[in-house]
Amino acid sequence: MRIAELAGRARVKVSTVRFYERRGVLAQPPRTTGGYRDYDDKALSQLRFLRRGQELGFTLTELTDFTAMSAGLRSGVIDVGSVTAAAVDKLQEIDARIQDLQRTRDALQMLLHQQCIDPTEECPIVQALGVDSSTL
Asked: Where are the alpha helices (DSSP H) in 56-120?
């Protein structure tokens, strides 16, 4: 299949496919006699893997590591412990970001309760933006 069809079936942009190829996370496909890239179903699977992995918060580097770990499948060996450990680390990272976002949300909600009413006074929201965030 050509690059546009591959991108469409994987629900990514053509530029994303080319980017992945330049980064070396998606193998360069053979070319037709007309010079077009000729992708197979394996490329589609790899592309879907990369897209889904990024949706779950993994970086391209992490996904490349996963691909390298699962390359052992051909020899019947895969480092399941490393894959699991990486997934656990990612989950902890996501939990930490959620806690951070919750603190930010709580701080903003608290600021919204301090409305800017008196035009002669500095707005409490604007004033709080200049304060050390560790005091919120």
From this structure: 60-70, 80-112
Q: In terms of residues, how long is the chain?
A: 136
- Kindly tell me the burial class for residue 28, based on how many C-beta atoms sit within 10 Å of its own C-beta (0-12, 13-18, 19 or more): exposed
Contact between residue 94 and residue 57 where contact means Cβ atoms under 8 Å apart: yes
Cβ atoms of 122 and 115 within 8 Å: the answer is no
Taking only the tens of pLDDT, the chain with its 136 residues reads 999 999 999 999 999 999 999 998 898 899 999 999 999 999 999 999 999 999 998 999 888 887 776 655 555 455 667 778 888 999 999 999 999 999 989 988 888 887 777 777 778 777 777 766 555 5
Give strand pairing partners of 31: 37
| pTM value surpassing 0.70 | no
Residue (of 29, 26, 46) closest to 38 by Cα position: 29
How far is 83 from 16, CA to CA, in rounded Å? 25
Tokens read off for 135: 């005091």
* Burial of 26 from C-beta contacts in 10 A (0-12 / 13-18 / 19+): buried
